[in-house]
Write a structure and sequence with these properties.
Largest sheet: 6 strands, mixed
Protein name: Restriction endonuclease
Pfam families: Mrr_cat
InterPro entries: Restrct_endonuc-II-like, Restrct_endonuc_IV_Mrr, tRNA_endonuc-like_dom_sf, Type_IV_Methyl-Rstrct_Enzyme
Shape: globular
Number of helices: 8
GO biological process, one term: DNA restriction-modification system
Helix content: 25-40%
GO molecular function: DNA binding; restriction endodeoxyribonuclease activity
Oligomer: single chain
Length: about 250
């Protein structure tokens, strides 16, 4: 578990956020035959073949969310709450019970709110996902929660969130929140976003970085845990990553 920040009262921006690509459900099955790496990705190329070839943005914009992986997105969200004076607790991988970040205040003995993060691109968060998060809040006895996404929410999801004490923060809202911080705080958040191999997905099962592999039957590239076969975590690769992979192969 990790803790950030200094305990303080909950600010108005806190309502109550597993970051996963919705396409991950369609990633290739992890059989041994599907783990063969293309010859072009031998050695060091494994970790660089899919890296963005453009310069990192020097300021916050929607492009930042598009470039970073899900774990970096969660880290940015956690840092936002820490900057607001809250003490935060999170875990980097494994089953999270529907909670990515726990928020604590010096005025309460337990958590005052919880956060779920969804690093999605191009797909709005549906009402079913927000309703499930509300169920998690109820099970924990909490009335406040934040659902943060790099994407958007459906109209029904926003209505449900507003009616049930959930602070729904979409990508545009998060950028507005970041813009309200001091230049120093914005720079800190940007450094957190681009920390390490920010473009390479973290395995949700074990917390280590993933590598590109290809399905031996279809040739379709996908992300696989670098610890395969010890860990069989995998997720689908975005169209942009596939294009870079093909161009450099």
């Amino acid at each position: 578990m990790a803790r950030r920040g200094v305990p303080a009262a909950v600010p108005p921006e806190v309502g109550g956020n597993s970051a996963a690509d919705p396409a991950a459900a369609h990633a290739p099955r992890h059989d041994d035959a599907a783990q063969r790496l293309p010859q072009a990705f031998a050695g060091k190329a494994i970790t660089t073949a899919v890296a963005p070839d453009e310069d990192r943005p020097a300021a916050w914009s929607p492009r930042v969310f598009a470039l970073i992986e899900w774990r970096r997105f969660e880290a940015v969200c956690e840092a936002l709450f820490a900057q607001a004076g809250l003490q935060t607790r999170s875990q980097s991988h494994g089953a999270d019970g529907g909670v990515d970040i726990w928020l604590h205040s010096r005025n309460a003995s337990g958590p005052v709110a919880v956060v779920q993060c969804k690093h999605w691109q191009g797909k709005p968060v549906p009402v079913s996902a927000v309703r499930e998060f509300f169920g998690t809040m109820a099970a924990l006895g909490l009335k406040r929660g934040t659902y943060a996404t790099s994407s958007t929410f459906t109209r029904d999801a926003l209505a449900f969130a507003q009616a049930n004490g959930i602070n729904a923060q979409d990508g545009a809202g998060l950028l507005q929140l970041i813009a309200s911080r001091t230049p120093e705080q914005q720079a800190e958040l940007l450094a957190i976003a681009f920390e390490g191999d920010y473009w390479r997905p973290t395995c949700a099962s074990c917390g280590l970085k993933m590598v590109p592999r290809s399905n031996s039957t279809t040739g379709e590239p996908f992300w696989s845990c670098s610890q395969f076969p010890r860990c069989r975590g995998n997720q689908a690769m975005t169209a942009a990553a596939k294009a870079r992979l093909e161009a450099r192969g």
